Amino acid sequence: MPQLIGLQQAIFRQGRGKLLIFICLVAVFFSLTLSLGFWQLDRAEQKEAYLACNQTDEIMPMTNWQNVKDGQLIQLEGHYLSQYQFLIDNKTYQGKFGYDVIVPFLTRLDTEDVVFWVNLGWIEASVDRSVLVKTSLLSSDVQLQARVYLPSKKGFRLSDDQYQTQGWPSRVQYFDADFFQQSFTSELTQAEKRLVISGFEVRLEAHQEGVQARRWLPSNVMPPEKHLAYAFQWFALAFSLIVLAVVFLVRHVKESMNNEI
């Protein structure tokens, strides 16, 4: 009889250990699916704001360029500093891998020489990662129209390290105005270092000098409705996990009670 009681206690302890593991796994996956659902809701809200602010065609006066808002249309007159090109890595377009090309653009505003970070668009990457293609640009003065891009939140990054390649063009991991300024101004003369550097990105409109594939167009980005659909799927999965966990726990309690009788 003592042996039978000891065996029952051992089985109960083993079952309780598995139950704790199961509860921990359910809690982890429930938290993960819930957070992914809220993330998709947040992305849907960002996309709605992005689409709304990119509808205006009114050109903002450059006298107020330091107080620009996301999506505002601006007009710049000057020239590209085409020897300095940044290639932002891990950008896809129509199923292909490539880069977003960022080039400093020098313009004269009142009494200041100001540099803006112009996103030309997307170019396809070479199969050979060591080959970095330089985009050909006019060296003469041109007039550009572009939209200000001020992301409300930091985008997804594989790492916060830049991993910049040597030389130009320079492959980087993400847009960072401060980092670009350090890389760019380190090769300028003392007089050129007095340039005013903008702290944001501007994206070219159609038919502008140097424009490439504009993968950020509303027709190319995922619509808010799709993010909402993904959010619903994640929340439905979280609900299913809870239902399955409750069913399992009820069955486990019934089996434990039957074993005790």
Structural overview:
With 261 residues, the protein is α+β, with helices and mostly antiparallel strands. It has two domains: 2-49 and 226-260; 58-217. The chain contains three helices and seven strands. The protein has helices at residues 2-53, 177-185, 224-260, and strands at 73-80, 86-93, 96-109, 112-124, 142-149, 170-172, 196-204. Strands 1-3-4-7-5 form a five-stranded mixed beta barrel. Strand 2 (86-93) and strand 3 (96-109) form a beta hairpin. The longest helix is centred in the first third of the chain and has 52 residues, at 2-53. The model is unreliable at 1-12 (pLDDT under 50).
Write a brief structural summary:
The protein has helices at 2-53, 177-185, 224-260, and strands spanning 73-80, 86-93, 96-109, 112-124, 142-149, 170-172, 196-204. By secondary structure, it is α+β, with helices and mostly antiparallel strands.
Shape: elongated
Largest sheet: 5 strands, mixed, barrel
The number of distinct structural domains comes to: 2
Would you tell me the overall average pLDDT? Answer: 81
- Strand arrangement within the widest β-sheet reads 1-3-4-7-5
Number of helices: 3
Q: Give me the secondary-structure category.
A: alpha+beta
Order of helices and strands: HEEEEEEHEH
Q: Which labels suit this protein?
A:
2 domains; alpha+beta; 38% helix; elongated; 261 residues; 5-stranded mixed barrel; 3 helices
